[in-house]
Write a structure and sequence with these properties.
The chain is of the alpha+beta class. The protein has helices spanning 2-25, 94-117, 145-152, 181-188, 218-223, 245-248, 256-261, 278-298, 314-321, 398-401, 411-414, and strands spanning 44-47, 51-54, 57-61, 78-82, 85-88, 210-216, 232-238, 309-310, 388-394, 419-423, 440-443, 451-452, 456-458, 465-468. It contains 11 helices and 14 strands.
Length: 471
Amino acid sequence: MKRIFLVVLSASVIISCSKRGSASTGKPGIKGELVPRTKAKSFTAERPYGMVAIPAGSYVMGMADQDFTNNPEKANLKTVTVSSFFMDETEITNAEYRVFINYVRDSIARSLLAEAAGEGGSTGNGTTIGDYAYASKKAGDQKNAYQEFMESQGGRDGYDASKKLDWSVPLRWKTSDYPDVQYAEVLESMYLPANERINNERILDTRKLMYAYQWENIESAVKDKSRGSKYLKKESIAVYPDTTVWIKDFNYAYNEPLYDGYFWHSAYKNYPIVGVTWDQARAYCNFKSKLKSDYNESLKKKKQKAMAFRLPTEAEWEYAARGGKANATYPWGGPYLQDDRGCYLANFKPKRGNYIEDEKKGTYTYTAPVKQFPKNGFGLFDMAGNAAEWTESPYNNSTYQFASTLNPYLSNQAYREPRKTVRGGSWKDVGYLLMTGARDFEYKDSARSYIGFRTVQDIPENTAKYRRRTK
């Protein structure tokens, strides 16, 4: 009897251990069935700040209205389908782009300080240059097993864990706050040398504001049926906007006030950023993606990696500009540039020699602050006029003919083609270029006083609802 009891007891221990082992080790299946352990919850996309959700849909792409220019780039109309995405409700403003510039400036300054600090050894709050040493050099910095392994291997390509910056220590930009001579020597190297200054004005040397990043050449990887670091394209972009465009674009006009202060003056903080190239716009998208990814990674309860921000394709831009209206000549839907009270609906050049939409108020000779004109059916402002906008798409005769009817985009030519499609018209353009189907182009390395951009972010297919971003 005792022997039988021991056998039964042993069997119960084995069964209970096997149950616990199955749960703790993650053995697949439940009761022998292949059942995913993750709970089947509907995904809710988090709407990024300042963006609106553009629902998926189809529309007739192209210039359906009369083409007064008989442009040879015009192509046959065709119905296309576009997936849902988030889009900036306004063009990127000077204030938003300055966040990018300040990040690049601070990153470079911190890297220079960390190199000069050497071993550091201090854990203070910026009272000596030693406080700005790399985080791994700080006293008490504890490396986990992964960090120690990566450091022993020399780090990853493009990333060295031993050179992680310590962003908790505040930078001191006022000369009266410099903690020591060595700190002053490093910070002053960020400014124009004395022999290049005008009226001895202490100005940041914007030529040093280089943003380095990398992106994957997906087309080449797919062609080779492979993936790896050899398909990564490394970029180092000078990101400060070209403020001289206000003079170069208009040789016989007095635009010196805009040349002097359009980008940095607080009066223009809510005006659209202009004077940026296509490459600079893409660099901004990368920074915006990095900012969100780094935040998600910093949370104790980590969030899933955010979808990347990017420039809209030409098809996405036109679909969004139409605002959900099938035959929208302009983003507001109708074929007229004025409302029933005679007020212009966008910032553009209304008459020959006249750049002002409201002569009584005498405002908006050039660009206007964002959100000054009515939004379209999707909630987007300035999809016509103010600043024309870069798109991701190349500009050539085959753009419409050979592109797919499903999310049309010639990705294999996007990077190689030097001409990029520009949409929406600007403050200096006549009403024709404000039409939702009108196309224009600019070379990707060119900056203009009338071209800006806005970003988009993909939404996973069949996402049922969107959630406002928490403050």
